[in-house]
Specification:
mainly beta, Immunoglobulin-like, six-stranded mixed beta sheet, 23 strands, globular
């Protein structure tokens, strides 16, 4: 079985397609490591009821009325679907290139309603920016002059809050506190100069439980003007967590439709966690420690090691992983009802793939 899984992983086509921001490298020589049980099939739900794992089975019978062999087959099918890279037709977190108006970087966003494929052949109504979930990545540098123009094609009013970004009060994006709501069919322009670097977010702040829950969310990343003040890393991966539209998802997808995190042996990998959901998600990486270096965009005075990092709603965490151990390492939320059940793994599960 191990040899077959390794073979499946090596032969997986386009395994890295969009797996990390600006990184595309082929997967070779990897093996599946540290996965005691395998994930659900592509047809399994990404979100399970709270008592999903509470079944009591007669002797010789697995949970959910399945035999042990039947359960194992479900788990194996999910692993194979993940390794085969059965791609969905949609993808979020695409870089948004600005237009230049003099020295101002102009980003154009449109809020609209679409059908979002969160797992293969499984779709749900989503309220998104630029027809993707998460919305496009806005990436700028300290000191940049930025203009964000939002056109609202939702059936209700909306607004954008730039979460963690230092902005003038009238650009804070909270209807009836700092601005009028953006009515359906209307547009609003936000303009400010970037003052603080780090991993931040943007999302709706109007009927937010519904609108953010349905997908009005995205990453806002600010690189420091002085690159020497940034953390040392070779590759990076953005990981936006959500627990509403599509169930328990990473970057808008539920396992086995999630994408792997990929690096080469010897590289330093930077992971930017962002929680846009309503629940905490302790993210656990098998096999390797995570060096926690920043919280909510601010460098920690004393970085620390962990293997499980609790990411609460609204939080952003930056970690550095020294990729010293080759293989495919399980990577998942450690609230187990968000990640694994009778039918195998689902939801907030992926793998860190380290190449030789």
């Amino acid at each position: 079985m191990a040899k077959q899984l390794a073979s499946d992983l090596i032969s997986r086509r386009n395994f890295l397609k969009g797996a990390s921001l600006g990184v595309g490298i082929p997967v070779v020589g990897t093996v599946l490591a540290a996965c005691g049980n395998a994930p659900a099939t592509a047809q399994s739900p990404t979100a399970m009821p709270a008592d999903h794992n509470m079944t009591t089975a007669p002797q010789g019978q697995a949970g959910g009325g399945m035999t042990a062999d039947e359960m194992d087959a479900h788990h194996e099918a999910g692993i194979k679907a993940f390794l085969a890279g059965k791609e969905t037709t949609t993808k979020g977190n695409q870089p948004l290139e600005p237009k230049m108006d003099g020295d101002v970087k102009v980003f154009e966003l449109t809020s609209s309603v679409i059908q979002w494929e969160y797992a293969k052949d499984q779709k749900v109504e989503a309220w998104v920016y630029n027809e993707q979930l998460p919305g496009p990545v806005i990436r700028v540098t300290e000191g940049d002059k930025v203009r964000v123009v939002l056109k609202n094609q939702l059936p209700e009013s909306t607004a954008i809050h730039f979460h963690g970004v230092l902005v003038p009060n009238n650009m804070d994006g909270v209807p009836f506190i700092t601005q009028p709501p953006i009515k359906p069919g209307a547009s609003f322009t936000y303009e400010f100069t970037i003052r603080n670097s780090g991993s931040h977010m943007y999302h709706s702040h109007h009927n937010a439980t519904k609108q953010v829950g349905k997908g009005q969310l995205g990453a806002f990343i600010v690189d420091p003007k002085d690159k020497s003040k940034d953390f040392a890393y070779d590759v990076e991966h953005l990981m936006i967590l959500n627990d509403q539209v599509g169930g328990f998802t990473i970057n808008g997808k539920g396992f086995p439709a999630t994408e792997p995190v990929v690096a080469k042996k010897g590289q330093k990998l930077r992971i930017r966690y962002m929680n846009e959901g309503q629940l905490i998600h302790p993210m656990h990486l098998h096999g390797l420690p995570q060096l926690v270096v920043a919280k909510d965009g601010w460098p920690l005075p004393q970085p620390y090691m962990c293997d499980t990092l609790n990411v609460a709603p609204g939080e952003r965490w930056d970690v550095i992983v020294d990729c010293t151990e080759p293989g495919a390492w399980a990577f998942h939320c450690h609230i187990l009802s968000h990640a694994e059940g009778d039918n195998g793994m689902f939801g907030m599960v992926t793998a860190l793939v380290i190449q030789e």
